[in-house]
Amino acid sequence: MTSKLFALLLALTVPLSLVGCAGEDTTTEETTPSEAVETPGESPTAQTPPTSGNPPNPPNSAPPPDNVEDWFTYEPPDGRYQIKFPRQPLEQNDTAITENNQEIEVYMAIYEDGSQGRAYMSGANEIPLPEGASFDVEQGLDGGRDNAANSTNSEVESEESINIEGLPARSIIMRNSQGIRFKLMMIADTEEAVLYQLLVGAQDGNLDFPEAETFFDSFKITRS
Q1: What digits encode the pLDDT tens for the residues 106-138?
Q2: How far apart are CA 115 and CA 198, in angstroms?
Q3: 185-to-2, 24, 196, 219 alpha-carbon distances in Å
Q4: Hey, what's the torsion of the CAs at 11, 145, 195, 200, to 10 degrees?
Q5: Comparing C-alpha atoms, which of 193, 196, 201, 141 is closest to residue 4?
Q6: pLDDT tens profile 62-99
């Protein structure tokens, strides 16, 4: 049976229509959180996550190993980055169609620690830009934040601009109506036009635990 926390993470994907681009004739109508799609579903467009039928069940998960060296090092099929999960995550790879009818690969990895009511997610999406356009960092990060809040039915509690591996990033804390809290980190690679998402969720609302810090600290970009 799919848990609520696991299902919420499955709803997350980068909304390509919300990711900004600057250039000639590339302005699109801005979508606000209240206008964004609340649940995945109808079709794998730029504003809805790609789906492949019913969502998968979370894998049976044991507590994280005591030794960080025993954590699972995950790398997506495109080899863009590496990150450590407490155990091997469930990989969600699919194809999405953008508003310009461009096809892109969407990669996500999710691990749920059912014993602690916690979940970990990483993802990376290449943002196809119209010819002559450039990646608008602030609009892209704003769009990713709004989509994540909407997809998890959450309100943003705090937001901080940070720097990860020399790239502009955001650290965001969100809480939904059920008391589940999320910490989201988004990293914008303007040169490669890629938006990375790292997220930890906790059903008890406590995000201050060492495994979360280990997860975020282990992220590194491996594709140059």
Answers
A1: 788 999 998 899 999 999 888 777 677 777 788
A2: 21
A3: 24, 30, 8, 11
A4: -60
A5: 201
A6: 667 777 888 999 999 889 999 999 999 999 877 766 66
SS (H, E, C) the chain: CCCHHHHHHHCCCCCHHHCEEECCCCCCCCCCCCCCCCCCCCCCCCCCCCCCCCCCCCCCCCCCCCCHHHCEEECCCCCCEEEEECCCCEEEEEEEECCCCCEEEEEEEEEEECCCCEEEEEEEEECCCCCCCEEEHHHHHHHHHHHHHHHCCEEEEEEEEEEECCEEEEEEEEEECCCCEEEEEEEEECCCCEEEEEEEEECCCCCCCHHHHHHHHCCEECCC
